[in-house]
Amino acid sequence: MGWSMTKPKRKKRLKKPVPSDEFRNIKGAKRERMIAERKARKLTQAQLGKMVGCSGVMIGAIESGRSNPGLEISLQLKIVLETPLFELFPDL
């Protein structure tokens, strides 16, 4: 007999490769000015996060464009980095 009581195995779907790098970061462009200002002051993401009142992971997400900062974090970044908001976040 060819009958079985088990479920048939599903075939795994292969992930399609991304054709180019322009689709890797859909939510926003990198904030090069923010990165440059942070590095000019020789701060790590964790140090800047502590000064601003958030985590270093959040600073990394803001710099890469995966996350947009809230009003409070934006104002603290403006004060700490001494740079206008429109220069820090030109893509907002």
Overview of the molecule:
This protein has 92 residues and is mainly alpha-helical. The protein has a domain at 29-88: 434 Repressor (Amino-terminal Domain). It is built from 5 helices and no strands. The chain has helices at residues 32-40, 45-52, 56-64, 71-81, 85-88. Helix 2 packs across helix 3. The N and C termini lie far apart (66 Å). Mean pLDDT is 80; it is low at 20-28.
List key phrases describing it.
92 residues, mainly alpha, 434 Repressor (Amino-terminal Domain), 45% helix, 0% strand
Structural topology:
Layout: H1 32-40, H2 45-52, H3 56-64, H4 71-81, H5 85-88
Q: How many distinct helices?
A: 5
Mean pLDDT: 80
- SSE run: HHHHH
Corresponding CATH architecture of the domain at 29-88: Orthogonal Bundle
The CATH topology of the domain at 29-88: 434 Repressor (Amino-terminal Domain)
Distance between the termini: 66 Å
**Secondary-structure content class:** mainly alpha
Q: Which spans have pLDDT < 50 for at least 5 consecutive residues?
A: 20-28
The level of helicity is 40-55%
> How would you name the CATH homologous superfamily of the domain at 29-88?
lambda repressor-like DNA-binding domains
The largest pleated sheet is described as:
none
Radius of gyration: 21 Å
How much of the polypeptide forms β-strand, as a percent range?
under 5%
Number of strands: 0
